[in-house]
Amino acid sequence: MSHGPPSGRTVIPDRIEETPDLQGAHPRLSEAQIAALAALGHRRATRPGEILFRQGERDCDFFVVLAGNVAVVDGHGTPEERVIGVHGRGRFLGELSLLTGEASFYTAVAADAGEVLAVPAGRLRELIAGDPAFGDLVLRAYLLRRSILIGLGAGLRIVGSRYSPDARRLRDFAARNRLPCRWLDLEADPGAEALLRQAGVTPDETPIVIAYGRLLRNPSNAELAAAVGLPAPGTPHAASDLVVVGAGPAGLSAGVYGASEGMRTVILDSTATGGQAGTSSRIENYLGFPSGISGAELAERAVLQARKFGATFAVPARATAITRDDGNYTIGLGDGTSVTAGSVVIATGASYRRLDVPRLEFFEQMSVYYAASQAEALLCRDDPVAIVGGGNSAGQAAVFLSRHAARVTLIVREPDLRACMSRYLIDQVERAANVRVLPRTEVRQLLGDQALEAVAVENNRTGARSIVEARALFVFIGAAPSTGWLGGLVDLDDHGFVRTGGTAGAADADGRDTGWQRSALETSQPGIFAVGDVRSGSAKRVAAAVGEGAIAIRLAFERARAS
Ligand SMILES: Cc1cc2nc3c(=O)[nH]c(=O)nc-3n(C[C@H](O)[C@H](O)[C@H](O)COP(=O)(O)OP(=O)(O)OC[C@H]3O[C@@H](n4cnc5c(N)ncnc54)[C@H](O)[C@@H]3O)c2cc1C
Prior knowledge:
Strand content: 15-25%
Helix content: 25-40%
Number of helices: 14
Largest sheet: 7 strands, mixed
Oligomer: single chain
Bound molecules: flavin-adenine dinucleotide
Distance between the termini: 56 Å
Radius of gyration: 25 Å
Number of strands: 28
């Protein structure tokens, strides 16, 4: 599809003012840094209106503005085109996609005659790896810029009805993968119909995604991933030493340590890198981050680190089966491909539990969420919301959403928050003026005709019922292990978590005990390790998951040496 640009050129405002650097996302490079970069690239003059790189392009150069201004434009060439930033001398362009290999989410246009320094992306990555101070500066700016783009609703457009399960799937996939996008609801947004008319699409052909001027009709997650340049399955994996299944904190840690030790490492995830931690607005108890770190940032940093050491990612790639063959393990994937390695790390964590209430599936399409990140906060800005759960994830969500929603009601089954929530979070919940806690309370009904309007709750001691106004319901009531795909190959405990360690030996193909003793974190199959939340008896903490990922690699080495 091509949107006819109204004028054929970017509309640059008459008075160009540089975008202020309020959050540290647009630092200015020093003369010494520019000189170091100049040795890796080339300087060139720019003409007003010249496009330096377009949205949708991959592996663009890294540009530093030497003279004049450069405008950053969202929806370039479309009627919704808007300038979202202007950068002058000493500032550099680009955002996270330049480091991850994703397509660019915006277009950079020279606003006036000037000069830029262009450095090939590969040289930039080398410089970042070799100069930690410069690397930190660029990485921090790029992480902040990604978060700003998400907040601005720049990048992709997803158009569909709020009642469409596929529209919800695409929105969730974009949110979990931290893809900047704007959601246009056919039921409420007049812009949605206009966009469909322009694209020549009828409402019954939705949802659609507009990615850099390309129209995707109800794409699968894998198709959307391919369009934006995520490392989708189908990438030839060849023979690997190590396959890590699951890219939450535990899997990312195993990936970083495995690859850094020289193992040919493949990391798979069915949905997105970051796992449960990626849905956390702020992790405050992870060592070394006194002011906390968002799960998204932790995940992005870990992915870049694993890639730096040579790990390969495949996302989305769902493991559906695992078989043992001649000392190696083959993992079957949802798209029919497979990957084989001598060592496997199971890091598939746990997935959210759902509420047992009538009409849940209907409301899940538009008003029930299992994550509270920036993307969800945008969708319920200034609305009253309810959160179910009394643990740390519910507490974090309450504190985070209190900054975006009109009111937050925290519905807790236990008599008070102390039963399951850390003290530091209880203090924050109590300090938030617009958060109300309903202890000893359970959700009985979801109310609303078209979308959620309120929830009916019941006091589990007195039986008294009341109505809580809520346009969105966030559910954090624990998680069940993601182990169905293992098909009985490794031992599980009574709740479905993977057993590790102990003294049980493994049987050979004929059922005879081999006398083999498993090490800590090793499952009932030699060379298969389980780490993080999926493991029986795990601590259910980010730090524990990361530590176990590292230990498993050490054990995998020892196992490989012994066999
Ligand atoms: C909202 C929230 C806030 C939290 N806050 C904190 C906190 O502040 N501090 C703290 O220490 N802990 C916190 N936690 C807990 C912490 O996030 C988890 O303990 C941690 O993420 C576990 O990491 P993991 O890698 O073991 O599993 P997960 O994070 O669950 O990751 C598992 C990954 O495996 C993938 N996967 C599942 N099945 C398959 C399959 N078949 N094939 C391929 N991939 C698959 C999933 O998509 C997922 O990405 C929080 C959890 C939540 C939900």
